[in-house]
Amino acid sequence: MNASVGSSTGQDPGDEDGPRAGRVGRAADVAQAEDLQIAGITAMSTVDWPGRLVATVWCQGCPWECPYCQNHAIIDPTIPGVVDWERVEDLMNRRHGLLDAVVFSGGEATRQAAVVDAARRVHEAGYEVGLHTAGPYPRRLAELLGMGLVDWVGIDVKAMPGAGYEQVAGRQGAGVRAWTSLGVVLDHRDVGHEVRLTVYPDGPTDGLEVARAVRERGGRHFALQQARALGAPDGFRATAIGWDDQVRALARDIEALGFESFTFRPV
Ligand code: SF4
After folding, report:
1. C-alpha angle 221-224-227 in degrees, rounded to nearest 5
2. 248 alpha-carbon distance from chain centroid
3. Which residue has the higher pLDDT, 37 or 29?
4. Pairing relationship of beta strands 192-199 and 152-156 according to DSSP bridges
5. DSSP secondary structure letter of residue 35
6. Which atom from ligand 1 is nearest to the alpha carbon of 198?
7. Phi-psi category of residue 177: left, alpha or beta, with phi > 0 → left and psi -120 to 50 → alpha
8. Is 58 left (phi over 0), alpha (psi -120 to 50) or beta?
């Protein structure tokens, strides 16, 4: 089923996984928060939205397959969620005054149409909404931001568009989707952001070009992350001779670009 920007129904027309079943008995074209396939919840986190105390909702499934994925165990989109939305509601009811926000992460949160209603329900409960995305569904992202349902986005950019991107994400067209999504985020000046680049020894070598392009497009907050082996798929190589020095040099070059804020997350 196709959905257009401004609609909260159905799957993104660019969904590479096909329609996602909601709960039995619910109209398939009206996704509610209760339909969200949730792999887990972190009740309190200081790292998922820098500067905020948040609860994090880990959404099941991602259409991409990055070799360094830290959440590899929850990227299979055919596996249903194991946590009911009611638990998120319950957490929000109990944590007023303690938590600032709820962050939707994954997996890929924008894969599911239900994230739109879920974000609305978080706002209605009096919390800010954060979102982690790699940008595979620019239209749903535009819908969320256009409706004012998201206050901050942590968005991954993995390489310049093209073959290098597809090498990382494992899907054709991934780079175009991700950079379109980046444009959506940067066009919403009222929404906070952090653009994140994760590097690894066998990955693309265009990190500085990526950071420069993000800066030229109006990116204000940038983070360089060094991929870790922990949680990644078997066989992923996180280290190599001289790798740490290369990443530190890249961090220095990116810092010199003059982002409003630059964060380096080494291993
Ligand atoms: S886009 Fe993110 S969640 Fe999806 S496979 Fe890559 S690192 Fe994992």
Report:
1. 145
2. 24
3. 37
4. parallel
5. G
6. 7
7. alpha
8. beta
pLDDT, tens digit, 9 for 90 and up, residues 90-101 = 999 999 999 999
Domain tally for the chain? 1
Residue 161, domain extent: 28-265
Domain contains 253: yes
Q: Is the CB of 134 under 6 A from ligand 1?
A: yes
101 DSSP β-pair partners: 54, 128
Q: Identify the CATH number of the domain in which residue 125 sits.
A: 3.20.20.70
Element (H, E) at 95: none
Over 142-197, what HEC string results? HHHHHCCCCCEEEEECCCCCCHHHHHHHCCCCHHHHHHHHHHHHHHCCCCEEEEEE
Q: Is the CB of 196 under 6 A from ligand 1?
A: no
Residue 22 lies in a domain: no
Distance between CA atoms of residues 263 and 266, nearest Å: 10
Q: How remote is the CA of residue 51 from the centroid of ligand 1, in Å? A: 23
Q: 13 lies in a domain?
A: no
Q: Which atom of ligand 1 is nearest the CA belonging to 168?
A: 6
Ligand 1 proximity of 69 Cβ (cutoff 6 Å): yes
pLDDT higher than 90, residue 81: yes
Q: Is the CB of 106 under 6 A from ligand 1?
A: yes
- In the sheet that holds 38-45, the strands lie side by side as 38-45, 54-59, 101-106, 128-133, 152-156, 192-199, 221-226, 261-265
Index of the ligand 1 atom closest to the CA of residue 72: 8
User: What is the residue whose two structure tokens read 């009911």?
Assistant: 84
What does the pLDDT read at residue 70?
A: 93
Separation of CA 114 and ligand 1 centre (Å):
19
Q: Is the minimum distance from the CB of 62 to ligand 1 under 6 angstroms?
A: yes
Helix (H) or strand (E) holding 63: none
